[in-house]
Each structure stands twice: as structure tokens, then as C-alpha cells.
Amino acid sequence: MSTDHSPIFSLEVFPPKRNAAVGTIYDTLDGLQGVDPDFISVTYGTGKQSDRTATARISNTIRQEYDIPVVAHLTAQYLDKDGADEALDLFEQAKVRGVLALRGDSVEGREPAGVFEHASDLAAYIRSTHPDLDVYGACYPEGHPEATSLSQDVENLKKKVDAGVSHLVSQLFYDNSDFLNFISLAREAGIGTPIEAGIMPVMNVGQVRRMGKICGARIPHALDRMLDRWQDDKKSLRAAGIVYASQQIADLVAQGVDGVHLYTMNHPGVTRRIWQNVGDLFEPPSR
């Protein structure tokens, strides 16, 4: 499937945890039957050899057995060139569409490799050594937590695009106005690449509060009210979260965004229900 249309719709899944059965990924993928993504991205850990083989294996499964294009994540901070070459070769063998180049989270007590300090460094390396792979990148609608300002973060994002990133996927956000303001700033800075809006459905209160602190995602009043109302009622909160994400997506598509990237958290039932609500919005317009 080509992504040369707008809006596009994509999903993110992650490999099973190390103590989980590998087959659990099939539960996720089988549960996504009926959803029609343009691609699925597969997450990656902090640079251990087992991370790259797991990501490559799941990527190959999605492409071969489910016939869906794949983008494999790759984190830079703890990666040396040998590790990068190994991962990229594995990804090429799995016939992924592209690689999402990330800096990755810091691990307390672990020393970075010092080779790819920023995601832009890894993006440039992928572009120069594996030119057949598309390079994807992340962006932060409310600014990276370590950036001094949103405008400075947009300047850094321009460097990442200039290094070879041709498609951007945003971090989660809960207020569409934050994303739309970010899009305006990015376009003013000369960033012309497609930018997908990252949406993470609300499934529990702790997740939203924690992600808000980690990524700096603002919690608007309407969502805060939902969390307070159903904090002790998981079923109702999940149902409200599906509605909230669906409304976010419908509004974003109405505003003409390039696409939506849904963080599934390996919960196919939630993903399916959102797709039932919004899937028709990603079809070509009827005449």
C-alpha cells in the first residue's frame, strides 16, 4: 500500500516483553484484523542485541504474514556503528519500508555509546549507508522536555529533516490546538515533510498522568474531568477514552492533517473500536 495520499493512518506495536511468550504478538496482530493501516511501526529498546532481533523478527512477521508495510524503530543513544549496521542489515532483510530514527530514553547507570548523540546523527548515517530505506523521525508538538522552548525545538527538528528524515510522527498530545500550532511553526520554519499526529487512547489514569510528566503532554480540562469522573471505573474510562481519541482524530482529519499515528499499546480491541468510528474518514472522498 502506498502512503502517497492524505490523510494516512498508521499504527504502532511493540514486541512482547522478554518474559512473555513470543506468540502474544500474534494475539495483537490477529486482533487488528479489519483495521487498514498504511503501515505499522515496531518499537525498539535501548540498543541491546536482543532488541534489534526482536524488532526485526516482528517486522518480518507483519510484512510476510499480514502483508502490511513496516517501519522499524531504532534508538541512537546506546548504539555504536557495528550495532547500527547489524540492525539496519536485519531490517533490510525483513524488507521494512523505513526506519524511525530516535535518540531513545536515557538509562540510569548506563553510559551512552557516544557515536550517535542525536537522532539527526543516526538519520544522517542511515541515509548515507542505506539510501533505499526511508528515514522517519519523531517530533514533539509541545516541545521536547529538554528543549528550552518550542521554537528552539522546531529549529532542532529542521536539522533532523535536513539530515535526511522524510516523514515525521508526533509524540502523543491531548489537545489538538497544541498540535495545530506546532504544525504552523514547523511549516514556517521550512519543514515540508508529512507530519502525522500521534494519538494514544486513554486507558487508565496512571498512564495519562505518567505520560504527561514524561513527554510534557498537557492534560486539557475536558480530559482531566474524565479522569476524575471514572478514575475508579476502568471499563467506563476505557469507553470514554475511545470516544475522546475518536473525536481527536475526526477533528484532526477535518483540519486537514497529513495523517494519524495511533499508539495501540498492543490493545487491539481498543484500536478496532476507534477504527470503527473513524475508518471511513481515511477513505478517498466519494464523488
Strand and helix layout:
Elements (H helix, E strand, L loop, with lengths): L7 E6 L10 H8 L7 E4 L6 H18 L3 E6 L5 H13 L4 E5 L16 H11 L4 E6 L10 H13 L4 E6 L3 H13 L6 E5 L5 H11 L5 H9 L4 H21 L4 E5 L4 H11 L9
Parallel strand pairs: 1-2, 1-8, 2-3, 3-4, 4-5, 5-6, 6-7, 7-8
Helix pairs in contact: 2-3, 4-5, 8-9, 9-10
Q: Tell me about the biggest sheet? A: 8 strands, parallel, barrel
Radius of gyration, rounded? 18 Å
Unreliable stretches covering 5 or more consecutive residues? none
Q: How do the strands line up in the largest sheet?
A: 1-2-3-4-5-6-7-8
Number of helices: 10
- Structural classification: alpha/beta
Measured by DSSP, the beta-strand proportion falls in: 5-15%
Q: Determine the fraction of residues in helical runs and give it as a percent range.
A: 40-55%
The SSE order reads EHEHEHEHEHEHEHHHEH
Shape: globular
* Distance between the first and last residues' Cα: 22 Å
Mean pLDDT: 93
Number of strands: 8
